[in-house]
Amino acid sequence: MGFFEKIKNGLLRTKKSVGAQLNGMFAAFTGANEEFFEELEETLILADIGVETTEQVVDELREVTRREGYRKGEEIKNALAEILEKHLDTGDTALSLSTKPSVILVVGVNGVGKTTTIGKLAAFLGGEGKKVLLCAGDTFRAAAAEQLSVWAERAGCDIVRHEEGSDPAAVVFDGIAAAKARGADVVICDTAGRLHNKSNLMNELSKISRVIDRELPGADRETLLVIDATTGQNGLIQAKQFKESSGISGIVLTKLDGTAKGGIVLAICDQLGVPVKFIGVGEQTDDLLPFDGHEFVEALLS
Ligand SMILES: Nc1nc2c(ncn2[C@@H]2O[C@H](COP(=O)(O)OP(=O)(O)O)[C@@H](O)[C@H]2O)c(=O)[nH]1
Ligand SMILES: [Mg+2]
Known about the structure:
Shape: elongated
Strand order of the largest sheet: 3-2-4-1-5-6-7-8
Largest sheet: 8 strands, mixed
CATH superfamily of the largest domain: P-loop containing nucleotide triphosphate hydrolases
Bound molecules: guanosine-5'-diphosphate, magnesium ion
CATH class of the largest domain: Alpha Beta
CATH architecture of the largest domain: 3-Layer(aba) Sandwich
Number of domains: 2
Structural class: alpha/beta
Radius of gyration: 21 Å
Number of helices: 12
Helix content: 40-55%
Number of strands: 8
CATH topology of the largest domain: Rossmann fold
C-alpha cells in the first residue's frame, strides 16, 4: 500500500465523519453566509480541533472568503485546506539524529502506545540503514521488557534490559554503554508511564535525562511524547504537563485509526507549538508514518 493510501486508510473514521460532512458543505456552497460558518465551526469542534483553534481557523476563512468573494465549493475547500495546513506547520518534522550514537527518549502515560511506537520506529530507522539498540527503561512490569524484546526481534535489533523493578536510569546507562561498544547509531529508550504518582514519574524521567547528558554530552537527542488520539482533549492536557516538566522535541500521535476525531492533531500542533513527527495508524510494524501536514489535509478532504 502506498504512503498516501495508508494515511487515507488510517484516517478512515475521521474521513467518514468530518471529511464527508465538510465535502457535503463544500458541494452546497454558493457564497459566504453566516450559516455556513456556524456549521463549519460545529463540525470542526466535533472533530476535536478544539474551540480556540476552531475559532481562529473559521475567522481566517471568513476573512479570506469575503475578501476574495468565493462562490464555488472548490475555492472555499482550497482556502480551508491552506489554513488547516498553516496551523499544522510547527516546524521541522524530521528526527535530528546525526551523532553516533544519538538517542530517542520516548515518554507518555500508560497505554498510549510507547512500546509499540518504539518497535515501529526501530523498524523505520533500520530501514534507513541505521543500527538501532532498544533500551527497556520501563522496569515497572516484567511484561514491558518482554513486549519490547518481541519488537526488537521483529525489527532485528539489539535490546538491553534489566530485571523488573530495577532502576530505569541504570538500564539507560547500560544501553548507552552497549551502543558505544557495538557501534549503534541510535539508542531508543522506553520508559514507564504510570501517572498515579506524577512527581515520581517526572523525577525518574529527569534522572534518565541526566544520565544521557553525562554519558553522551553533545549527542543529538529527541524526546518524543506519545499521545493517544482516542483520548481527545485529555491527551492535550497530558501533553501540556509533560511539556512543562521534560523538554519535548516532538510528538507521536497514535491510534488515529481508532478515532473519528482526528482533528486532535490540529489542536496539538496549534496549542503546543511542538511538531507532530509521526502518526500511528495501526498495530503493525509499518503503521507508523512520518507526519506531513499537507498530506494529512489532502487525505482528510479527498
Ligand atoms: N489501533 C492502534 N493501536 C495501537 C497503536 N499504537 C499502539 N496501539 C495499541 O495500544 C496498546 C498499548 O500500546 P503500548 O505500546 O503497550 O503502550 P505503552 O503503555 O504506552 O507502552 C497496544 O494494544 C497497542 O497494540 C495505533 O497506532 N493504532
Ligand atoms: Mg510500554
